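[job 4471] stage=fold_predict status=RUNNING
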Amino acid sequence: MRTVLLLIAVTLFAVAGAGQQTKKPETKKKAAAAKKSPTPSKTKTASTNKSAAKKNSVSARPKSPQPKTSPAAPKRDDKADLENALAQQDADEKVMALTKFLADHPKAELRERALESLSAARVAAGEAKFNAGDRVTGLILFKKAVDEAPFPYPEKLYNEVLSKVPQSLYFRGELPAAFEAAAAIEKNVAANASQLLTIANFYLAAENGDEAKRIAESVIKLDDKSAAAYQTLGMANRVNFDLEASASAFAKALELDPDSASAKRSLAEMNRALGKPEEALLLFSELTAKDAEDIQSQTGRILSLFDAGKRTEAETELTRALESNPWNVILLAGAAYWYAANGDAAKGIDFAGKAIAAEPRYIWSHIALARALSKDGRLADAEQVLLGARKYGNFPTLEYEIASVRFASGFFQEAVEELQKSFTIKEGSVATKLGRRIGRSAASLPELVAFERQASILQPKGAEDMANAEKLKALLEFHWALAQAGPEETKAAALADAFASGTDKMRYHRSIYAAKELLEKRVAPGKAFELSRAAIASVDDGLSIPVPAAPIMASELYANRTAAIAADRYVLVPEVPKQTLMSIARGRIEQIAGWSLSIQGNNADAIIRFRRAVSVLPEKSAWWRSTLWQLGAALEAEGKGKEALDAYAKSYTAEPTVDAAKYAAIETLYRKVNGGTDGLEDLIGANPVPPPAKETTVTTVNASETKTDTQPPPVVEEKPVEKKEPLPDRPVLPKTETPSIPEKTPEKKETLPAVNDTHIAKSEPPVRTDEKVVVKERGPEKKEPPSDKNKPPEVKTDAPPQPIEKEPEKKEPPPETTEKPALTKKLDAQKPLFDPVVIEVKRSTPPKPKSDIKTESGDEKPKPATNENVGGRPRVVEGKEIVAEPSEPCAISVSEENISLTAGGGSEGILVGIDRGMDIAAVKSISSSPRDVEVVRETEVTGVTGRGLFVIKSLTNKTGVYQVAFLAPCGKKNITVSVR
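[job 4471] inference complete, writing structure tokens
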């Protein structure tokens, strides 16, 4: 260190002047010379001076070329270089230029400005990378922009760039990076109250109330007079569904800043949500008096008038407000919900429809519409609306609403499954995570979901039916008890009682459902018997509800409805004759009674109940088949093998699909009764489980035809005796059966078995599945002799089949009309039960309320269309009317003659049928304006050629009344489509 200082000192002296440095040595030298030689030589002295001067001149020469070693230094212009870097238009090039500037000018005065510009350029470049799909580079650039920004952050850079980085990342789906950036920025601005609040606002946008609240409280510690901090705290509490604390924080903010319109408005909103409409009205009125253009305050004032019971005044102002701003979604949805909650279904439907048309993504509009439709008794429409809303988001209230409408319809199993997605039972209370974030519990479902409603749309009063809500909670609790390991019988029985009790018209349906659930778990069979007895008195009430078929057929529709909804479709419940429903209702009471008695070991009495049920239930229905099987089990337990075998056989042969387990049970009993299996196949058909592959190969192929045996059993093998391996999914079978097998009659009845037993093991296309259904219904697949084909009884069709050599002949003719009467006769009694299974309606958008069905309009003659529709998509010239040229008259039927759609995507499915045994493919569909309204055939009704599902959809935002015609060579049918 000393050496360095010495060198610095020497250098400074050298710069000060070489003359002074040379004089001092000369004086010393002269003195020394005087001592040595009293007479110094002049020549020596002169030479000494010359050499010193020479040294000085030599030492000075090397310094002159120094400027040449770094010629750029004097030429550098920091300002010009920075301006050149900032002039780059491309974000990536600007980042590179600024980075180079900072490297080249480590001590430039403009360095801070360069760093500031570099941060902004990195954010811009990062956004460009994200937009181009380069996520990794974009994240790196955003991170560097925050980490290497000049600190403390310049206000402009912070407000316009850095504060927006977390939000930009969050809405790009980069949640971890967004929260990491927010934390990094917060750390650097911890002492700056205003900058801290922008981070709190980011957390509010991300609905992270806890973090926003923490930061707001930190700011209050820095400045307890900050009205903005209290407003942020109020919003954080609202996001956390703590409305009382939110109101308190807003009141403090207004106290600190009495002129703050936002604080006053926020406090008014909380007062309204908490059921204080008069206080809210006062604040909103102050705001609108000061600023007539304050739409938010005007909306709050009108809705507060409704809440305060001032309906006339509210409606007057509502009309005026909507005249000037018809797209005020919050006002439309708020009014719709208020009308629904206060029993005015018509206005609720009207205003909710307008709100959805204005902004379909606002889920509360859908909830308001569903509540209004439910009040109007249109539960299926309400469910479809709510299912459509799920594509815009999901939260506990929406699941509760879906569960509520399903419960009211009688789909109890589906209701509780929907509820279990978000709600649990804890010691008699219901718990959920509000907004999927905040854990909360309450004594009832309405009280719990009220937090989300009040925090979101500020409605203090819910629109739910409180009695239904109470029963829905009881259902949830009942299922929770049954789901426990080793359910406690006493508790389960008490909860079943609580669920089934009541004097309303749904009591019968709840009683049967609760009893069935207990018996399936084999818990409290005595209580199940008691419930079945109590249900007798309420059958008539149960059938007097608007759609009694829904709860009665709920268990059989369950699988189809679940699959349809998962595929964005909807299963419509058809009208079923009351007499048929009465038979099912009374039959199920006896079945439940017999089931409970058999579990208790009283098979003798159980047999009596089962026989009664079988005599009442519609023949071949799922309930009839299951009861017959239970009867067989009870008879077998009583030692009545032959009677049991008969019951088993009737149940099995009526099944739409084969069941290996049931076949094995029948085979075991058959061996026991008859000493072997001879004749078993004649009774119930071939074993659905073929012999092991190895055995098959040995028996069938004595040469080298191993490949043939791996395929479905060949049509004509060398050994016709090998017809014993009838695989139900054999592709050729349906075509080679007797003409009665494909039975494509216009009746819907063939499909009931297919739906009532929805667990079809095979995955063939619908047509093949139905053909298999008929085969199973009519007997074993390859063993039906042609001589038996005209006999209606199923037993006859169980006879051994002839070899399948006539396959080509039977393929060609479609179902013969001569064969149809037998099938029609056989299925007539079940006709109404087939519809529900097969009607699936595709739903891409929530349905709009339907207009009432009107009488047939069909006298007008349509005019010729330019092109017919092929495959369901119309190709016609607009403005031309639609006609068909009928040959022999036939009737085309439709499930609805007038439908209403929402413009811009609304769709509705209708069922179309044609008589005279014609195939539905013969029916073409034409739209009067295919550019605006599309009609597409989705599917045929399973197993029936004369019916099909057509989906009509609005393609544009154009409204009006359109015509859709269904044409066949022998007739036509028009329907009216209203698009709004």
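[job 4471] summary: The longest strand covers residues 960-968.
[job 4471] exit 0
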